[in-house]
Design brief:
By secondary structure, this protein is mainly alpha-helical. The protein is 48% helix and 3% strand. The chain is built from seven helices and three strands, in the order ααβααββααα. Helix 2 packs across helix 4 and helix 2 packs antiparallel against helix 5.
Length: 172
């Protein structure tokens, strides 16, 4: 897969970038080769997205240990971004990818031209809101092994963005 394929929208960029940020938060430092092994993408694709995250100040280069590898890390000059800032970044990347999808949907193979977008307003208690979020996480967990093990992906599987936002509607 080429960087041009990613730039053209064949992969949801936010999914790769979000996965890279999550890996960096988990591991501390990461090279594009390590990211590629964990995410099942090419080293070039991971390198492209790591550079883009650095371009916007979301990550920085870490000191190299062997002179060849180019490790990355979350910025050290300030504490890790609070959850709200990460959520804002994720929402922006989700929105960007969704707009790209809407603009280019007709270019996708026929079987991929539909999506399963929906929304609903339900009346929940705070505990129920938490339970619904956990139920969605558990449902998606069934497919997480495919992130780390490309061999676990069925034929024809592609990255699919799943966006869930649960929040109370405040009185206006």
């Amino acid at each position: 897969m080429t960087e041009e394929t990613v730039r053209s929208g064949a992969l949801p960029e936010h999914a790769v970038r979000t996965a890279l940020l999550e890996l960096l938060a988990e591991r501390g430092t990461l090279t594009s080769t390590e990211a590629a092994a964990r995410l099942g993408h090419s080293s070039g694709l991971c390198s492209f997205h790591l550079r883009q995250l650095a371009r916007y100040g979301l990550i920085e280069e870490a000191p190299a240990t062997d002179g060849r590898a180019r490790p990355w890390r979350l910025p050290q000059a300030q504490p890790a971004a609070p959850r709200d800032e990460f959520s804002e970044l994720a929402r922006g990347l989700e929105d960007e990818s969704h707009q790209r999808w809407l603009a280019r949907r007709a270019e996708a193979p026929a079987e991929w031209q539909r999506d399963e977008a929906f929304s609903a307003v339900v009346h929940l208690t705070p505990e129920e809101l938490t339970a619904v979020g956990e139920a969605v996480r558990q449902l998606l967990a069934r497919y997480r092994d495919r992130d780390d093990d490309p061999a676990a992906r069925p034929a024809g599987a592609r990255p699919v963005a799943v966006v869930t936002r649960l929040f109370p509607l405040l009185d206006q």
